[in-house]
Amino acid sequence: MKKWRKEMAGFTLVETLIVLLILSILILIMVPNLMQHKDFAEKKSDEALIHVVESQMTMYELEKAKSEKPSLEELENDGFITRDQKEKYKRIMKKEQ
């Protein structure tokens, strides 16, 4: 029985610590990179929403034969944009100022 246990020995504490150190280094390298990708995706999403809302403003002007830009409330009330789009557009424009 003793012989069998020696053959089935596990990892030593030093080996385990080395593996944890390597994993920690890899995580430290990857986290900032993931944050950059998240920021890039959020920026592109904001740009797309601005484009959608401005396109809907143009469609509203053409459909209603108006020469002035409509308010966000008018767009929402007439179904050109949703409440979520309106709120996010307001946050984006406030952030840009």
Shape descriptor: rod-shaped
Poorly predicted tracts of residues:
none
Main β-sheet: number of strands, strand sense, barrel status? Answer: none
Mean of all residue-level pLDDT scores: 89
Count of individual helical segments: 4
> From the helix content, strand content and strand pairing, which structural class follows?
mainly alpha
Percentage beta strand: under 5%
Could you give the distance between the termini? Answer: 76 Å
Helix content: over 70%
Order of helices and strands: HHHH
The value of Rg in angstroms is 28 Å
Total DSSP E strands: 0
Compute the number of structural domains: 1
Can you offer a commentary on this structure?
The chain is an all-alpha fold and 97 residues long. It has one domain (12-96). Helices cover 80% and strands 0% of the residues. It contains 4 helices and no strands. Helix 2 crosses helix 4. The longest helix has 52 residues, at 13-64. The model has no long low-confidence stretch (mean pLDDT 89).
Topology:
Layout: H1 2-7, H2 13-64, H3 72-77, H4 83-96
Helix pairs in contact: 2-4
Question: What structural keywords apply?
Answer:
mainly alpha, 4 helices, rod-shaped
